[in-house]
């Protein structure tokens, strides 16, 4: 019985092809947006997580506040000092500390100019080793910096690609950084951390000299003893610095961050962005639902005579209800399926553009089966909900009234 | 003459009401005025009758057809379909009963445009939960009998007026109803095709079907063996 009614409904949709497609348009734009945004959002979240996962979990950073995660130095806030460095070093549970500079720099090669971050690395045998481990730096070509190297740099993986200067930088070549020549000693392995793929790494003293600055520290990299909990050590550092600066809790002008903390902060932002974007997509789904309701109302009006005829030849109210309800559910279902296809294609397209732009596999599209099932189910539900009232009205028409048309 | 005698005989042992109207009134309100569309009509239609209800437009014909066909309820008075007072039925039960007992034929054929001739004839059987094999077989048989065998899979839009009306007749016959209720069945057909339709009705009547025809055309009414004239919502014999 239901299969027969299903065929009748399908027939009606086919008869009004253009209208059916236009009605579904509203749904599939909404569903496509939901699918694309959620799968990309999850991919982005995974990519960001990767940024921090590449940092060792026992590595802390101390920065002056208000700098956020961005490179310090750009804002006019007080610099960290050698005094701070000593203070942190003396804190219990701290293995090594290193002063770090991260600055925007002008990089020239092959007669072309590019701007990128230049990051310092400690010029102390022990600290250097710790930093390599904490930042997960490995050479893909050439080798890492060694104590005793003079005017040599490591380049992030993207420098080896043709995209930056027209041709990839090779180990042994000279490169000009802030008008000073350096030899490339190694190319770093591609990292999950986008910044590290575009970074120039050189010794702290050389960068200081290169930037022509005094004893400045942008951030302090802290390696925590393996036996200690990084979170606890972070608290100790905070305590020591607060005392030193005579500040109250909550009024610090510095921050100590563990990779996990940074991760959760970024995740919070991403979750908020996702929520907003999905909210917008939901609005378009509501509009799509209204479109279905509108189409169903029109359909009921225009098929009054048909409804009357069917009632005269024995259709029960429930039969009429089903015919119309199946129709609106089908609009939602098919709209949803097409939306999933379009949304997936859009997400894959965006991620492949992003990946070719940044290099590597930055954003992986995360298309999960539950997401697809949810999307299709939800759009069918919209179809059904939108069709309930028009279908009910159709079923309640008196045969005489309906036959009159 | 012979034919008449046989018919009378067949009616003799089936003389029992299939549709009965008792003092039926039907009022409508249009704006502020009350319209008495049907004004105290009593009517017995027996099994095997060929009845014509005739009257000019505005005489309450359509309303009569709706009442006789159990499509509408009376304002006052009772309507019995196969001795069941339809007033006491739920709408859905009435629809089922109507689907089994009465086959409707409309002036404008009222075929479902998305369905083929065969599917249109199968539709009333869908509503009676008859399985697909039986539906297909029966619908094919009826359509073939009405010389529509070669046109089974055509859509209504691909058929001529006469052909459409034959599909509509086939649809009316689908559930083996005792009554065929036709509303101006020849109204949209040329006279020759119309004669053909009447001929089909006569054949069906000979087989024992009750035929009720609502029309304004006295020529068509001539074929019936009982004619009710309707004027101002009342029967004037």
What would you say about this model in short?
The complex is a heterodimer of chains A (405) and B (237). Chain A has 405 residues and is of the alpha+beta class.
Describe this structure in words.
The complex is a heterodimer of chains A (405) and B (237). By secondary structure, chain A is α+β, with helices and mostly antiparallel strands. Chain A folds into 2 domains: 2-51 and 264-404, no CATH class; 57-258, no CATH class. Chain A is 57% helix and 16% strand. Chain A has 13 helices and 11 strands. Chain A has helices at 2-15, 17-53, 82-90, 125-135, 162-165, 194-197, 204-211, 230-245, 259-302, 304-312, 317-358, 369-396, 399-404; strands at 59-64, 94-100, 102-109, 112-121, 139-142, 152-155, 174-177, 180-188, 200-203, 219-224, 254-257. A 6-stranded mixed beta barrel of chain A has the order 3-4-9-6-8-7. A 4-stranded antiparallel β-sheet of chain A has the order 2-10-1-11, sandwiched between helices. In chain A, helix 2 crosses helix 11 (317-358) and helix 9 packs antiparallel against helix 11 (317-358). The radius of gyration of chain A is 31 Å and the shape is elongated. With 237 residues, chain B is an alpha/beta fold. Chain B has helices at 2-12, 61-68, 91-101, 117-127, 132-145, 161-173, 191-206, 218-221, and strands at 17-30, 33-46, 50-54, 76-81, 84-85, 102-105, 179-183, 210-215, 226-231, 234-235. Chain B has a 6-stranded mixed β-sheet with strand order 6-7-8-3-9-10, with helices on both faces. A 4-stranded antiparallel β-sheet of chain B has the order 2-1-4-5. The longest helix of chain B is centred in the last third of the chain and has 16 residues, at 191-206. The radius of gyration of chain B is 18 Å and the shape is globular. The chains are: A alpha+beta (405), B alpha/beta (237).
């Amino acid at each position: 019985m239901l299969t027969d009614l299903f065929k009748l409904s399908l027939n009606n949709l086919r008869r009004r092809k253009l209208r059916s497609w236009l009605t579904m348009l509203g749904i599939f734009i909404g569903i496509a947006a939901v699918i694309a945004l959620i799968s990309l959002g999850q991919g982005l979240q995974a990519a960001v997580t990767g940024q921090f996962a590449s940092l060792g979990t026992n590595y802390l950073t101390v920065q002056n506040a208000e700098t956020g995660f961005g490179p310090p130095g750009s804002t006019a806030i007080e610099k960290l000092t050698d005094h701070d460095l000593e203070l942190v070093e003396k804190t219990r549970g701290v293995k090594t500390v290193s002063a770090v500079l991260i600055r925007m720099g002008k990089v020239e090669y092959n007669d072309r100019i590019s701007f990128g971050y230049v990051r310092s690395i400690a010029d102390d045998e022990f600290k250097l080793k710790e930093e390599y481990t904490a930042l997960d730096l490995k050479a893909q070509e050439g080798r890492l910096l060694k104590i005793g190297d003079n005017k040599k740099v490591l380049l992030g993986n993207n420098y080896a690609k043709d995209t930056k200067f027209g041709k990839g930088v090779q180990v042994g070549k000279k490169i000009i950084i802030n008008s000073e020549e350096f030899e490339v000693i190694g190319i770093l392995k591609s990292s999950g951390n986008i910044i590290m793929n575009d970074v120039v790494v050189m010794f702290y003293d050389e960068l200081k000299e290169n930037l022509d600055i005094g004893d400045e520290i942008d951030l302090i990299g802290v390696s925590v003893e393996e036996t200690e909990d990084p979170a606890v050590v972070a608290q100790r550092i905070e305590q020591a610095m607060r005392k030193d600066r005579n500040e109250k809790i909550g009024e610090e002008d510095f921050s100590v961050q563990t990779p996990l903390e940074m991760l959760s902060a970024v995740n919070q932002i991403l979750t908020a962005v996702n929520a907003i974007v999905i909210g917008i997509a939901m609005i378009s789904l509501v509009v799509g639902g209204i479109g279905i309701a509108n189409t169903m109302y029109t359909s009921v009006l225009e098929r009054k005579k048909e409804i009357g005829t069917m009632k005269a030849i024995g259709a029960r109210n429930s039969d009429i209800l089903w015919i119309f309800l199946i129709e609106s559910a089908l609009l939602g279902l098919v709209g949803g399926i097409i939306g999933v296809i379009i949304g997936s294609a859009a997400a894959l397209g965006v991620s492949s553009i992003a990946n070719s732009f940044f290099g590597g596999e930055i954003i992986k599209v995360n298309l999960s089966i539950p997401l697809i099932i949810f999307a299709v189910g939800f759009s069918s539900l919209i179809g059904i909900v939108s069709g309930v009232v028009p279908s009910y009205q159709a079923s309640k028409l008196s045969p005489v009234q309906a036959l009159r048309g | 003459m012979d034919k008449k005698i046989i018919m009378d005989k067949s009616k003799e042992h089936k003389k029992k009401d299939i549709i009965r109207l008792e003092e039926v009134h039907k009022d409508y309100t249009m704006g502020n005025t009350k319209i008495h569309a049907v004004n105290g009509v009593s009517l017995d239609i027996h099994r095997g009758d060929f009845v014509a209800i005739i009257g000019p437009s505005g005489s309450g014909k359509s309303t009569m057809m709706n009442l006789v066909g159990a499509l509408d309820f009376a304002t006052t008075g009772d309507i019995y379909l196969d001795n069941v007072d339809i007033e006491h039925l739920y709408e859905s039960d009435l629809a089922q009963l109507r689907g089994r007992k009465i086959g409707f034929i409309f002036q404008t054929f009222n075929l479902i445009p998305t369905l083929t001739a065969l599917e249109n004839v199968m539709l009333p059987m869908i509503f009676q939960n008859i399985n697909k094999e039986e539906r297909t077989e029966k619908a094919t048989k009826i359509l073939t009998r009405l010389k529509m065998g070669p046109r089974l899979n055509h859509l209504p839009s691909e058929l001529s007026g006469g052909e459409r009306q034959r599909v509509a007749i086939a649809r009316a016959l689908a559930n083996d109803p005792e009554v065929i209720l036709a509303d101006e069945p020849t109204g949209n057909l040329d006279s020759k095709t119309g004669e053909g339709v009447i001929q089909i009705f006569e054949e069906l009547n000979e087989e024992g079907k009750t035929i009720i025809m609502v029309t304004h055309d006295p020529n068509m009414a001539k074929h019936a063996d009982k004619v009710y004239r309707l004027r101002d919502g009342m029967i004037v014999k």
